[in-house]
Amino acid sequence: MAEKYDLQEREVWDGNFAASQALRQAQVDVVAAYPITPSTPIVENYGSYVANGYIDGEFVMVESEHGAMSGCVGASAAGGRVATATSSQGFALMTEVLYQASGMRLPIVLTVVNRALASPLNVRGDHSDMYLGRDSGWIQLDCFNAQEAYDMTLCAFKIGENHDVRLPVMVHQDGFITSHTAQNVYPLRDEVAYGFVGEFKPVDDMLDFSRPVTYGAQTEEDWHFEHKARQHKALMDSRSIIDDVLAQFKEISGREYKRVESYMMEDAEVAIVALGTTVETCIVAARELRKEEGIKAGVVAPRCFRPFPFDKIRDALGNVKAIACLDRSSPGGAMGALFNEVSAAIYTTDARPLVTNFVYGLGGRDFSIAEAKRIFKEQKAHADAGKITTDIQQFSGLRGPHLGFFQTKRS
Amino acid sequence: MQHLKLLANDNRGLNELENGTGLVGWNEVTQGSILPSFEGDATNIAHLKSEERTYSGYNSYTATVASWRVLKPVYNRDICIDCQNCWVWCPDSSILSRDKQMLGIDYDHCKGCSVCVEVCPTNPKSLIMFSEQTLLEDALTQWPEKKKKEDK
Amino acid sequence: MAATSIKNLKEFSTSNDRFEGAHTLCPGCAHSMIVRELMNCTDDNLVIATNTGCLEVSTAVYPFTSWDTSWIHIGFENAATAAAGAEAMYKARKRKGSLKDNDAPVKFVAFGGDGSTYDIGFQWLSGAVERGHDFTYICLDNENYANTGGQRSSATPIGATTTTAQAGSHSYGKKEKKKDMIAIMAAHGAPYVAQLAPNKWKSMAKGFQKALETEGPCFINTVSACCTEWKFDPKDTIGITDLATDSLIFPIYEIIDGHELNILYRPKNVIKVEDYLAAQGRYKHLFKPEYKHIIELIQKDVDDKWNMLQRREEARI
User: Fold this and answer.
1) For chain B, which terminus, N or C, has the lower number of CB atoms within 10 Å?
2) Looking at residue B90, which CATH number applies to its domain?
3) pLDDT digits (tens, 9 = 90+) for B90-116
4) Strands (DSSP E) found in chain C
5) Domain locations along chain A
6) Do domains A11-253 and A262-405 have the same CATH topology?
7) What is the pLDDT of residue B1?
8) Whether C81 and A76 lie within 8 Å, measured CB to CB
9) CA A179 to mean position of chain CA atoms
10) Domains of chain C
11) What percent of chain A has pLDDT over 90?
């Protein structure tokens, strides 16, 4: 039986501590992990809870991140609650196993503290690792601050472990800005949190020997396609369950979350779509611009990056005239992923607003309120002109000459 | 002479490997491509003989590789000393032994590798390879005589 | 089958198979002899993890499984870690009492070929053994990447031809000697390490049982003669394995607690390695006059190794 952990109604936690407290309250059975900056404290804290009797689980400190996710897969198939944490290079190293975890429909929770990918090596926050995971078949939830890192981690267990979902879930927070910045966090009481997450109910349990199961079969051209289709369907269908879980979470916490968060969008003429801590920066910028210059600016942020909220993005952006999509990951010879996906969603609306792409903040480069305002104003200029007046893709906050690509093509 | 379906459970060797029980659509494949080996409770499986088990349609027990064979081993009970060499070294779990007695071949799962014939210590051998088409009763009438030492 | 009941082969033959036929391993493959014997030598519940390789691609091809127990395959390298993760979960759930049957004994086993054991999965195996998980790792050593068509691994012996270490007019095949995994695993301090062979079925069954009964990580290297890539007739799998153990190319021995070495099989008549090599197509080129020295080198290495093993055994250190 676990020792009682004393919690205040309001704690001052950084994002890492907040996530680790969610792991404690969910009473995770096995954490298999490997250290990497900036996510290390999450698993260090879990280890400390085990060492001090605050949780009755197994902490397996393996020899690599690939091993960490491999251990998580073995543990999850053995019918219990499993979580781990990683960032950046570690995320890249475990990528092979991420696909296997989702293909085997194992509800592992991975708390990802977003960090840039080398080369060149960089420990600061950008979204390269989050983007690397976007086709891996995991549900990806995105947090903008420490409170959300705590809340979404609890929700992640309840979503992934739902028997109609049976999928692994990543909970993303920004390296250092969220993970290492102490903020006010209002935790739930242990029994409320555990009551919400609920007991783990295994399916296809390797330790249930009354029903032996084979995990990880080979499927060739006669079968593989059907399996991947079924997995995709499960991911798409998880949308309504995510909505349900977020609604239930509001009931116990009073905090409301949606698959797509919208701020000041009721009457917005221009919008920024962003992920992570940038969302809060853009909210402040929009609020100030409305006051200072009367620009009807709003912010839209996918809380749920996967399954991509095609439906809700369309609803949120259907009435604006110009949109800037902000991608905090080097797009590697393409438009940013958020730009592409948001554009595809709104292309299916009648409004078809003007959309441009900003690549920003790579390797932890600061993204300021002033820069957010500048981007909003540029959108306002597009809206007023009725066309895109700049390059469609631009780099924001970069030293050196202007870097941008592609203009609107008109016949 | 052994019955071809000696000690066979009802569903032994029913299916071709490629399709299993049928190529079903995406909505009918198992979640996560996970395969249950048995129907119903299999708690004591280590204590049950194959004919007492309830294999699921996903168990390769229900599939056949008989078409791989060019030659098949034929078993001659009259010579066998029940040493069980063939049982321990058969790579295809195809030697049917019960109560320390060798009984025959599982022709649904035998691939015709001849390991059983090679490891058989009797003289003449109690297992000999014949062409797949040879009838078991005909094979038994063609059994060789005991070899003299100098012939070896 | 319970640990005490395997007195002779007749007794052993009353055990019930948990590894089913109609897998798609090559006819005459030694892998299935070894796997089946492991599963038949215990009645305990088994959780088996398997690395990518011949065994995996032949025993769990959708929609069929040949495994009558819990089985998992993740990737080429990580069966040891999959077993370790499952073992950790077993401990956690046993303490909490959340297992379906909290008292039934469970054993954790990982299988890998030599490619996944000696090469790509080396780190995962080393980590799992260092951490002391209670599991048995069994390497099915056929001395090449047979599943991908016979490439060299670090278990391929010197002088063998493979598709990526080819014998030719300017080459005698693989130039490097085989990695000594048994010594490496013993150096981890694993409580039980052994090299076993399916032709010596009894010492193999006993070794398997010892490993399963030993608490902590155990490693067993098994000789798995590969008719397809060693180039011999499938019927001769056991005969070739006899040549391997009787020429002392594959000595059968165990190391307990990292130091106590016991030789488990002493051939009455030790044969020349030449006889073993001559029986396989992969060594055919060594019988050209210009490569005679390689055969001599192999013989010398085998003699030296055997002397070393005997001296280690005598020394009891």
Assistant:
1) C
2) 3.30.70.20
3) 999 999 999 999 999 999 999 999 999
4) 45-50, 70-72, 106-113, 136-141, 167-168, 171-172, 192-196, 218-223, 253-256, 260-263
5) 11-253, 262-405
6) yes
7) 82
8) no
9) 13
10) 3-315 (3.40.50.970)
11) 98
Does the beta-carbon distance from A204 to B34 stay under 8 Å?
Answer: yes
A164 reaches B (C-beta below 8 A): no
For residue range C133-149, what is the model confidence (pLDDT) as tens digits? Answer: 999 999 999 999 999 99
Q: How far is CA A50 from the centre of its chain?
A: 27
Please tell me which of the candidates C17, C28, C69 has its beta carbon nearest to residue B113.
C28
Does residue B120 form part of some domain? yes
Number of domains in chain B: 1
Q: Name the residue of chain C whose CA is nearest to B102's CA.
A: C13
Complex-level ipTM: 0.97
**Cβ neighbours of C82 in A, within 8 Å:** 70-71, 73-74, 77
> Quick check: B50 and C16 CB within 8 A?
yes
In a domain, B15, yes or no: no
Model pLDDT for residues B4-59, shown as the tens digit of each residue: 999 999 999 999 887 777 899 999 999 999 999 999 999 999 999 999 999 999 99
Closest CA to A108 of A49, A44, A192, A26: A26
Q: What is the 3-state secondary structure (H, E, C) of C147-204?
A: CCCCECCCCCCCCCCECCECEECCEECCCCCCCCHHHHHHHCCCCEEEEECCCCHHHH
Are B80 and B126 in contact, with CB atoms under 8 Å apart?
yes
Query: Is A55's Cβ below 8 Å from some Cβ in B?
Result: no
Which CATH class for the A11-253 domain?
alpha beta
Q: Which domain holds residue B82?
A: 65-141
Smallest CA–CA distance, residue B44 to chain A, in Å, is 8
Supply the pTM of this predicted model.
0.97
> Could you read off the pLDDT of C255-293 as tens digits, one per residue?
999 999 999 999 999 999 999 999 999 999 999 999 999
Asked if C102 is an interface residue toward chain B (Cβ–Cβ < 8 A), one would say no
Contact yes or no for B60 and C29 at CB 8 A:
no
Longest dimension (CA), chain A: 72
Sign, CA dihedral A276-A280-A286-A292, equals negative
Answer yes or no: is pLDDT of A298 > 80. yes
Interface check for C14 against chain B (CB to CB < 8 A): the answer is: yes
Stretch 213-242 of chain A: residues touching chain B, C-beta under 8 Å: 213-217, 219, 222-223, 225-227, 229-231, 233-234
Inter-chain residue contact C238 with B115, CB threshold 8 Å: yes
Is the pLDDT assigned to residue B151 strictly greater than 70?
A: no
Size of interface A-B (CB pairs under 8 A): 69
DSSP-assigned beta bridge partners for residue C260: C256
CA A375 to chain centre: 24
Smallest Cβ distance to C93: which of A77, A207, A215?
Answer: A207
Q: Could you tell me if residue B103 is inside a domain? A: yes
Question: Can you tell me whether residue B33 is helix, strand or coil?
Answer: helix
Percentage of chain C exceeding pLDDT 90: 97
Most distant CA pair in chain C, distance: 68
Tell me, yes or no, whether B37 lies in a domain: no
pLDDT tens digits for range C169-188: 999 999 999 999 999 999 99
Contact check, Cβ <8 Å, A166/B23:
no
In chain B, residues with a C-beta closer than 8 Å to the C-beta of A210 are 41-43
- Looking at chain C, which subunits does it touch, using at least 3 CB pairs closer than 8 Å as the criterion? A, B
Is CATH 3.40.50.920 the right assignment for the domain spanning A262-405?
yes
